[in-house]
Amino acid sequence: MTGHITHASHLSGNSDRSPAVSIRDVARAAGVSHQTVSRVINDSPKVSRATREAVLAAIDQLGFRPNRAARALAGGPVQSVTVLGSNTSLYGFAAPLEGVEEASRDAGFGMGFRALESLNPADMRDAVERAIEPAGALIVIAFDQAGAMALECVPPEVPTVAMIQAPSSATLPGRPSVWIDEFAAAKEATEYLLGLGHATVHHLAIPSWSAATRRMEGWRAALEQAAVRPPNALQGGWTAQSGYEAGCKLAKDSRVTAVLAGNDEIALGVMRAMHEAGRRVPDDISVVGFDDVPYARFFSPALTTVRQDFKTLGKVAFHKLLELSHSGRTAPTLASPQAQLIIRESAGPPPRSGPRGRQAIATPLGTRPDTGPNSHDEGEENDR
Amino acid sequence: MTGHITHASHLSGNSDRSPAVSIRDVARAAGVSHQTVSRVINDSPKVSRATREAVLAAIDQLGFRPNRAARALAGGPVQSVTVLGSNTSLYGFAAPLEGVEEASRDAGFGMGFRALESLNPADMRDAVERAIEPAGALIVIAFDQAGAMALECVPPEVPTVAMIQAPSSATLPGRPSVWIDEFAAAKEATEYLLGLGHATVHHLAIPSWSAATRRMEGWRAALEQAAVRPPNALQGGWTAQSGYEAGCKLAKDSRVTAVLAGNDEIALGVMRAMHEAGRRVPDDISVVGFDDVPYARFFSPALTTVRQDFKTLGKVAFHKLLELSHSGRTAPTLASPQAQLIIRESAGPPPRSGPRGRQAIATPLGTRPDTGPNSHDEGEENDR
DNA sequence: CTGAAAGCGCTTACAG
DNA sequence: CTGAAAGCGCTTACAG
Predict the structure, then answer these.
(1) Last residue of some domain: A66, A90, A124?
(2) B314 touches B162 (CB < 8 A)
(3) For chain B, how many structural domains are there in total?
(4) What is the pLDDT, as a whole number, of residue B357?
């Protein structure tokens, strides 16, 4: 009646039709009991090769697909994850999500998503519970405070992997976690700027509730190694707006000639602020971003930035989760692909520190020159 | 019993503990049968006010939350959607997703996401089936070909709402669908450009497998109304890269002085191409985008563009789905919030058609001047 | 308006 | 290695 949508039928290119084929149909077709079918689809070792193959054949022929709800209800293995995160439109949040989606799809898992909107503890707990219920497993994007808070609300017995900002020093997280350690890349980017002749490099940090981010440490390390006293890092938000606001302040200080932005959107905001203030990038001021969003190379000037492979991070997180649910436990933490400095156009020598034109500069170790849109990317440019 | 050292762990500010409270627990607490509890949580009218309230109280006190898997198995109403789409990083795809997420959360629905990666028919059918299985209902982002193909694979009995490109002419879709009709805004944007003095306006279209998009029709209508013969619209992809490639061609033709890009990323690519070709925006060439991505106002020049409220579109899609599952059927189609021209800096008079400085121009009806980052947005700038 | 029954499709012990 | 049993938490008819 009415209302609800008990769907039935539809189905597959192959043979059958309607009401969906169940484990019992397969059993009948294969001449075994439905328990045996269950064993086969759960990779139980206690099935003879012969029966297994017969069952597999029947499954294939009938187009059987196990019912996730039933499996979950009966206490079967986790078959889906929900990703919990406070943002979807920021590249640094969307790209990992893509990675999780892809990996989960490959593994036959369902993937849900739930946004974190409130920092209120009660709401947070509620959001977490609602996220756990349908999936049984969680991946939380804990780059920001909301994510970190959510993580704390997750009961210990729920299989959970966190994506976090690289932990500074020895503060390893209690939960299985994955991250990209941008210490080296931040250091390299800063060294690159210093190598260009800048007296110092200012840092516009992304939000962090811990003392410092690894990228901040890398930045600081490079400065200290060069015997320059690190200026105060500016704390802001994640967005271009935030970078713009900070940039407006920075623009007034003629001593700042180089800024390492916490991400590409912030870098864009800074460049805009500089533009408005009449300071040219890179002639008057150099700007380096973080992330390498797909459109960063199309800025004018094309953005020099630290590429981070967030998609892979997402995949790693998922595989970590898989491991966690199979072997019960997993190494507590794990570092992911390295970040990588991509040199384009937004950084150059400081004003009147040398000739105006492009000057040859030693490319720092491990960097990869890439001068804008012409040089096609190696990767899959998801451009349909 | 013996040591109850079950220490705190998660869970609700309220009372209970562990193994999850079931419908039967609630029934016991309320002194009714579990069926009655079921009726209450399903808003059955056949429950007396008194019992309903007793049950509700018990639910509240125990912190009961119905088990989605069990409900689904037992043939209860749909409680989750999965969104099917080919992309996550494009704003035009990510923003609607956000809208769906929010609306589904408010409605107590779960939300899954599944990406479309292959255009191969068999893969497509498979992807659709996998998406249907766990949720029972679908929202497909059918702005592109992949989405459109997926839509065709969905069995008719599955509650489904499509987000589509505004259908041109009378080709209304067979499925319940939602869209943003950018005809008027595209026409307005084109008129704006024409009003600035451009002899014609070139259009760089987003991909479309139907004859023409509504925005293309709007563009064409404006030209025809001004008695100028529409140039061929250039067909490309969705990305900045694609805009860049087209822009490189356009840059060589000195007759093109104004281009209406299919989206903001394309516009960015075009601007980059012009920059490389030594053509200044907006002095030598005007560029107008589509979408108003959050960072468009931070470009230099800030991008004049047509804002589309994709998030609302997502919400509308979800509510449409809700309606579909409640009242069985729904109006076959529905148009969403209007698109709106946002005037910033990337368009101006054509070269030597007038004075070089800013000239006063009559603001077209319904437009909203917005000169870059300084003017804060009215909306919620999800900037934590 | 409210119980007792039966079953959704699966899985985990338990006997062979 | 393979069945028969019991049950996961809910819902939909079916009797009161």
Answers:
(1) A66
(2) no
(3) 2
(4) 39
Confidence check: pLDDT of B279 > 60: yes
Same-domain status, A209 and A291: yes
A50 CB neighbours strand D below 7 A: yes
CA–CA distances in Å: residue A44 to residues A35, A57, A100, A136, A326: 11, 17, 27, 22, 13
Residues A130 and A196 in one domain: no
Q: Does a structural domain hold residue A257?
A: yes
Taking the C-alpha atoms of residue B23 and residue B37, their distance in angstroms, rounded to an integer, is 6
Residue B87: partners with Cβ closer than 8 Å, 6 or more residues away? A382, A384, B93, B94, B115, B141, B144, B238
If asked whether residues A262 and A242 sit together in one domain, one would say yes
Q: What is the pLDDT of residue A15?
A: 32
Asked whether residue B110 falls in the same domain as residue B120, the answer is: yes
8 Å CB contact of B89 and A88: no
Average pLDDT over residues B301-310: 96
What's the rounded mean pLDDT across residues A276-301?
Answer: 97
The integer distance in angstroms from the CA atom of B74 to the C1' atom of C7 is: 8
Q: Is A352 found in the same domain as A236?
A: yes
Nucleotide showing the shortest C1' distance to residue A76 CA: C11
Q: Chain B: residue nearest A146 by CA?
A: B384
Asked whether residue A8 is assigned to any structural domain, the reply reads no
Asked if residue B226 is part of any domain, the answer here is yes
Residue A247: CB partners within 8 Å, gap ≥ 6? Answer: A204, A259, A269, A270, A271, A272, A273, A274
A233-270 pLDDT per residue, tens: 998 999 999 999 999 999 999 999 999 999 999 999 99
Give the pLDDT confidence of B115-151 residue by residue, as tens digits.
999 999 999 998 998 899 888 899 999 999 999 999 9
Amino acid at B53: E
The domain in which residue B106 lies consists of 80-181+311-335
CATH code, domain with A121: 3.40.50.2300
Put simply, the answer to whether B105 touches A98 (Cβ < 8 Å) is no
- Measuring CA to CA, which residue among A307, A367, A332, A312 is closest to residue A182? A307
Confidence of residue A110 (pLDDT cuts 50, 70, 90): very high
- As a rounded value in angstroms, the CA-to-C1' distance for A151 and C8 is 34
Token output for B276: 């490389």
| Contact criterion met (CB < 8 Å) for B268 and A373 | no
- pTM for the predicted model, two decimal places: 0.87
Beta carbons of B265 and A295 less than 8 Å apart: yes
Amino acid code (one letter) for B309: D
**Residue for token digits 């599952």?**
B325
B238 shares its domain with B227: yes
CA–CA separation, B58 and B34 (whole Å): 12
CATH number at residue A58: 1.10.260.40
Q: Look at residue B21 and tell me if it is in a domain.
A: no
Highest mean pLDDT among A1-15, A89-103, A316-330 belongs to A89-103
Question: Which chain B residues touch A138 with a CB distance below 8 Å?
Answer: none
Closest residue (CA to C1') to nucleotide D13 in the complex: A1
- CA gap A96, A87 in Å, rounded: 11
CA angle A206, A208, A210 (to 5 degrees): 150
**Minimum mean pLDDT among A170-179, B126-135, B201-210, B315-324: which range?**
A170-179
> Which residues lie near nucleic chain C, judged by CB under 7 A?
A 19-20, 22-24, 34-35, 37-39, 41-42, 64, 66-67, 70-71, 73-77; B 31-33, 35-36, 39, 45-48, 50-52, 70, 73-75
Distance CA A84, CA A131 (A): 7
Closest CA to A205 of A274, A260, A273: A260
Same domain, residue pair B284 and B351: yes
Nucleotide nearest to B26 (CA to C1'): D9
Do B252 and B284 reside in the same domain of the chain? yes
Amino acid identity at B160: T
